[in-house]
Amino acid sequence: KSLPEENHLVNNDNGKMAASSDKVNDAITLMAQEPFHRGQNLNNDMQTIDQDAFSVNQRESEAHRVNLQHLCRICGSSSNNDPYKRSHPVHGPVDDEMQTLLRKKERKATSWPDLLNKVFKIDVRGDLDTIHPTNFCHNCWSVIQRKFSNVPCEVYFPRKGTMEWHPHSTSCDVCGTSSHGIKRKNQAPSSQEGKKLKITAECAKKIMYARRQKQVNSKYIMKKITNCKKIHLSTKMLTVDYPVDFVKSISCQICEHILADPVETTCKHLFCRLCILKCLKVLGSYCPSCRYPCFPTDLMNPVRSFLSILNTLAVRCPMKECDEEITLGKYSHHVSSHKEKKDKGT
């Protein structure tokens, strides 16, 4: 072959080699870039999954917070169970009804956290809206009222202890049972103990009922004899809610009104002079409380210190236009002044 032909063949071979090397280099660069693109796609997918999970968690926490608004902070019952939908704010001010009751007890409380801590022994100052309910039910409010009141009332507290609240989780009791409140676990009572308790309770009820019937009948008869409603003052007129035992000590044991012109028997019982004299005349010469022999000549005045305590008791004026607090010693003078004003007006 001639020399130009050989040069042409060599050039063709060199061109083919260069083209093939370019293709190999392109393939290598594509293979190197492919893991990078795959990593970017994986990162983007992970970010979208995280965003979706965050939005789901946010929605669940908001729903959890909404469910907490319908539950009681103390007992866990739902406000939907109350037909009147009554609830009270945990961190709010004490309502007027409770304030008047506390004033009678000579106590002060401006906010609910103080009262909740006294009655249920729980501190609600560090509560979080995402974990703890912000209201408590009217049933728990009644428990607080009973605590500071001497009026007997049947209030059922649905739990042995107060509720323990936890953050929202996958097995959340709040989100599962928010419509009816959180239920506690039932304990299977033993049949033998239940039977024994029933028998003893029934016997005790029968004995107490018979005793009460006798006491009620005798008191009813004595009240009929005295008939002093219009003369003597009721213990409800006292401005301060004193303990029951103290109220009994300053009230007549026949009419159960505040002692008027009190007298003491030889057996150390106190009565209004008018009440005991009427009972002794009708029922016989014995003490109405303990049946000890008693005669009108045995009646004595109580000690001066007791009379001074009695006269310093604050009572409310029964006149609607007045409603003033006065001591028992000045009560008769205060009422007579009202009568004089009426007489002058007429």
Fold and architecture overview:
The protein has helices at 3-69, 96-104, 112-120, 138-147, 173-176, 191-226, 244-249, 273-283, 304-311, 331-345; strands at 87-89, 135-137, 262-264, 270-272, 314-316, 325-327. It is mainly alpha-helical and 346 residues long. Among the domains are: 70-163, no CATH class; 235-345, Herpes Virus-1 (2-Layer Sandwich), CATH 3.30.40.10. The longest helix has 67 residues, at 3-69. The radius of gyration is 43 Å and the shape is elongated. Its EC number is 2.3.2.27. One of its GO terms (biological process) is V(D)J recombination. InterPro entries: RAG1, RAG1_imp-bd, RAG1_Znf, RING-HC_RAG1, Znf_C2H2_sf, Znf_C3HC4_RING-type, Znf_RING, Znf_RING/FYVE/PHD. GO terms for molecular function: double-stranded DNA endonuclease activity; protein homodimerization activity; sequence-specific DNA binding; ubiquitin protein ligase activity; zinc ion binding.
Task: Spell out the blueprint of helices and strands.
Layout: H1 3-69, E1 87-89, H2 96-104, H3 112-120, E2 135-137, H4 138-147, H5 173-176, H6 191-226, H7 244-249, E3 262-264, E4 270-272, H8 273-283, H9 304-311, E5 314-316, E6 325-327, H10 331-345
Antiparallel strand pairs: 1-2, 3-4, 5-6
InterPro entries: RAG1, RAG1_imp-bd, RAG1_Znf, RING-HC_RAG1, Znf_C2H2_sf, Znf_C3HC4_RING-type, Znf_RING, Znf_RING/FYVE/PHD
Domain RING-type: 252-291
Organism: Cnemaspis scalpensis (Ferguson's day gecko)
